[in-house]
Amino acid sequence: MTPFGERVRSLRDAKGVTLKQMATDLSISSAYLSALEHGKRGRPHPSWSGRSAPIFCIIWDEAEELEPLADLSHPRVTVDTSA
């Protein structure tokens, strides 16, 4: 799990929000949300933090803290062309 995924899951658990409930509230599939949490998808759309704030009942500043975690969790592919 990525730092972003861990934080999202901990916020969901703390508020008692299921993956399915959150996905419905964000108008995304629960499979996509699960993939975000597990690091199998790249960064969410930048508006994601603002849209998730009411679900977690957090203030905007706390929601913005998710953005750097999403950047850290974004998969990067490196191709070695030296061979």
General description of the model:
The chain has 83 residues and is mostly helical. The protein has a single domain (3-73), classed as lambda repressor-like DNA-binding domains (434 Repressor (Amino-terminal Domain)). The protein has helices at residues 3-15, 19-26, 30-37, 48-56, 60-64, 66-73. Helix 1 packs across helix 6 (66-73). The longest helix has 13 residues, at 3-15. 17% of the residues are buried.
In the CATH classification, which architecture applies?
Orthogonal Bundle
**Strand tally, please?**
0
Element string (H = helix, E = strand): HHHHHH
Using only C-alpha atoms, the radius of gyration works out to: 14 Å
Strand content: under 5%
Gross geometry:
elongated
The helix tally amounts to 6
Q: What is the SS-derived class? A: mainly alpha
Please identify which CATH superfamily we are dealing with. lambda repressor-like DNA-binding domains
**Helix percentage:** 55-70%
Brief characterization of the structure:
The protein has helices at 3-15, 19-26, 30-37, 48-56, 60-64, 66-73. The protein is mainly α and 83 residues long.
Summarize the topology.
Elements: H1 3-15, H2 19-26, H3 30-37, H4 48-56, H5 60-64, H6 66-73
Helix pairs in contact: 1-6, 2-3
Sum up the structure in keywords.
about 80 residues, mainly alpha, 434 Repressor (Amino-terminal Domain), 6 helices, about 60% helix
